[in-house]
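Late entry, written up from scratch paper. The run itself happened at the end of the previous shift, but nothing got recorded in the book at the time, so transcribing now.
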Amino acid sequence: MRVISGNYGSRRLKAVPGQNTRPTTDKIKESMFNLIGGYFDGGICLDLYAGSGALAIEAVSRGMDSAVLCEKHRPAIETINENLKMTKEEERFTLLKGDNHKSLRNYASSQMTEPFKLLFLDPPYHKQQIEKDIQWLWKLEMINNQTTIVCETDSDVILPDRIEGYELVKVKDYGATRIHIYEGEENSVE
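Output as recorded:
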């Protein structure tokens, strides 16, 4: 794995050892970022199921100001820390350890100053709760209609056309992986 483009482009990333996480391949990651516009003009990114941290690192590399990564598995946390060191800009990343909802709620109450502009949801396939996660984040005003949501699922998962204030604008299959892109209904492009 590597960072595809931007400030950290071509730098190598470590994968989480074992079978508990499923890394997004470079090919899928590149296609995913092409689907959402490729580069960003600031804002904060949230990766709710960070795994190796590759998606958040790619987003910051491509122009996000900073990223918040949530992870509870110790081997993944260790891998994220190693990958963040590779950026030489660890201060641009906040790693929240433990239960993602609990740690994110604590972060939001003490440090959050604006809604997330980009949200990655790539939960373990056997624990899909994407709709509930989006609804929870919306209810707590951590996301708004300016947030782009990128969901990675197994290819047989079909997400609804609308969740809260979001409209499904793109779906793309890559072998066993399906990418769903949601945008705020007021901002969606036909």
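The mean pLDDT is 92.
(Scratch paper discarded after transcription.)
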